[in-house]
UniProtKB/TrEMBL annotation:
Its EC number is 6.1.1.9. GO terms for cellular component: cytosol. This is Valine--tRNA ligase. Its main location: cytoplasm. The lineage of its organism: Bacteria, Pseudomonadati, Thermodesulfobacteriota, Syntrophobacteria, Syntrophobacterales. Belongs to the class-I aminoacyl-tRNA synthetase family. ValS type 1 subfamily. Pfam families: Anticodon_1, tRNA-synt_1, Val_tRNA-synt_C. It catalyses: tRNA(Val) + L-valine + ATP = L-valyl-tRNA(Val) + AMP + diphosphate. Keywords: Aminoacyl-tRNA synthetase, ATP-binding, Coiled coil, Cytoplasm, Ligase, Nucleotide-binding, Protein biosynthesis. Residues 817-876 form the Valyl-tRNA synthetase tRNA-binding arm domain. ATP binds at residue 529. GO terms for molecular function: aminoacyl-tRNA deacylase activity; ATP binding; valine-tRNA ligase activity. Residues 19-566 form the Aminoacyl-tRNA synthetase class Ia domain.
Amino acid sequence: MSEGILPKAYAFHEVESHWYAHWEEYGYFHADVHSSRPPFSIVIPPPNVTGQLHIGHALNDTIQDILCRYKRLKGFEVLWIPGTDHAGIATQNVVERQIGQEGLSRHELGREAFLEKVWTWREKYGGIIINQLKRLGASCDWDRERFTMDEGLSRAVRHVFVRLYEEGLIYRGKRMINWCPRCMTALANIEVEGEEVDSRLYHIRYPLANGKGALVVATTRPETMLGDTAVAVHPEDPRYASFIGQKVILPLVGRLIPVIGDAYVEREFGTGALKVTPSHDFNDFELARKHHLELLQVIGENGAMTEAAGVYAGLDRYACRERILKDLEKEGFLVKVENYKNRVGHCYRCKSVVEPMQSLQWFVSTKPLAEKAMEAVREGKTRIVPAKWEKDYFIWLENVEDWCVSRQIWWGHRIPAWYCSECGKVIVAMDDPTVCPECGGSRLEQDSDVLDTWFSSGLWPFSTLGWPEETAELRQFYPTSVLVTGFDILFFWVARMMMMGLHFMKDVPFRDVYVHALVRDAQGHKMSKSKGNVIDPLVMMDEYGTDALRFTLTAFAVQGRDVKLSEERIEGYKHFINKIWNASRLVLMNLEESGELPEIPAKPAGLVHRWILSRLQRVINEVDASIENYHFNQYAQSLYQFIWHEYCDWYLEMIKPDFYGEDPSVKALAQSVAARVLEQILVLLHPVMPFVTEEIWQKLPQTTGTIMKASFPQFEAERLDAEAEEQMDIIMNVVNGIRNIRGEMNVAPATRVEVVCLCERDFEKDLLLRHSGTVSDLARLSRLEVGRSGEVKKPRLAAGMVAKHVEVYVVLKDILDFESESKRLQKEISKLEKELGITQKKLSNEDFLQKAPEDVIEKEREKGARLGEKMEKLRHHYEIINTLKDSASAGE
């Protein structure tokens, strides 16, 4: 422990860098696998190696750090495994752009040289986000940092692929997949983001081959009509019953295609006649299989039309759309065009519109794995918090499709499959084969594809612990205790980890899944660079300190509700840190010569001591329950209320006379209680504010080592004192009542006033008489009179209120000039009436309500409500002042 008083200002930049380096140097984050303590483990959701710390990371990792620091204080052996994800498509895109600036493409470089470039890039830039996590205070076990393509994890990935293949759960086949023409790779269904766009619905006439009429179909993608192989109608649709079995002529192409009947067709959509393009629509593909239709691919992997598109071959798909529309109109096939909103799939990485198409890919058969993943949650082996996310989890797993795991890129885990050029055998093996086991041939070629990034991250909870080896870490820390994640990767990642963990480890990968919401701006809008409302956590940490950012995120992390964040809120919690700092300085300055602090009896002398110790016990319980049940906002708010409003504003203010008094025993008790409560406050606060708590901890007497090695405060039932809490509640209500009256009546803070308290019960009367000095000091009184009605006369020219069975009157005679105050209030009311009138006029303007953005309207409504509330208070005060003015004039 270092000695000395805290400086006047908290210099968070120096404190944060100093203590984080100290914690790392002394290995305080490192988990001991041989420890006899109960284990607690978390695996970090691995950020992309390309990533920068954003506000979502800041929330996610702050919550994890709270849990880890809390569990260490509770006596657990904590392992928090950090690491990064190789982010196949994203990283390859970054490096391709880099070499593109040199005038090169990856194909010109060749696979081996390109991958060398990627590894070089990873070594240089891949650790940026790790250093940013350290800035956030993340207490990860950095000695055990992992990367999804390090040697150990690569071995685990290969082991899983081979086993699943041997078990018949991985296969290669030609199926409909989502294809990104920009990234030039297959995507899993959940890697496609549906986005509502302004589109067009084109009505196109398909003439009957017999010349007796036509069918009109409606489509948003006229370019795909070149691949139509049927038109489908509902078999019970009377409009089209006679058309089923006939043929129509495909416009512009001239090919004859059948009219089929199928109950899949929605009679209410468009015209009720559906063009069937099996190679470019998942549902149409199923119709083609059912009705044995031809499959014709007219859009290629690069997004351009194929040779099968005839005269349109080579055109980009959107250029082809424009050409086709012109040709349809020219030939008289385009009936009409309607504006239409529909959801269009976009690549989750590059945001290009994806193209459904048939492709030969590798798939995981997920249904057998999904059943166990659902069963584990139903049986309570894994709990999802908040529970509302269970429904989404089950819906997705109940309707899960086979998972396309092959990607047509170079950066990633290469699929361990080889093809024999001589006999065509497919060889999947742990070790690279040199000869074909079927024919003995040596001309073997490895599959060029790599595995989906989510395949390797699906193994994260056990591969990071050394699996498939039976390591000490695996035995001690699997299953992990909790996973903290955003709802947006509940399916991408959580469900897949559940499937893989249960299949390979025969146990769930985590006991709890805590799902947090999004961080939005103060108005509840999603943050985006285009809107200019992005809050950069690195900038906020530089400006206000890491502890202030962490506490703000925690205070607004309500289960199931998005976090609404603003810079003003972060600044507000910086003031809270300053409050803690200044309170600690006050305590420490009064401990300088105290020497050894005496032990505190269970029920010490002095109401205020018994009260603060009792309140501390309740807060210890609240903090414990809040963190254990993932109510992080309640954890933060309990401490904020207790520290600022109870410990600082009341307790420390009330014991100041004890610090400066003559009685050494009274002074020693005040010093001891103030210091002991502060010590426990720091430990309770440490999980969310690690830096400031460590700095103050070092200055306290009778503390040793780091706060990270402290013990979480024990609940002491014998210190609970309901009577002390009730008595203090009365005193605080009376003082607050006096303060409120002073504020409302515009009494200067330095002016001392007379107060009369009328009590109908002896309990309140005796209490206020015993503590009249305290009440007078806190409320700045010149005189306090307490008694029953009849014993004490209700004062003239006073403003009053009721506080806990006590009538409180502040005497305003000779304090206020009622005439001047009346005029001042009237002037303020007139000004406010004008301002409120402008707002009300705006809100009653239909043109404003229809044209203004919703957030602007909402701000105006909030302003109107705020002004209305202020107006109500002013008028109330005006009435009181005028009553007092009239009474003074009447000489009462």
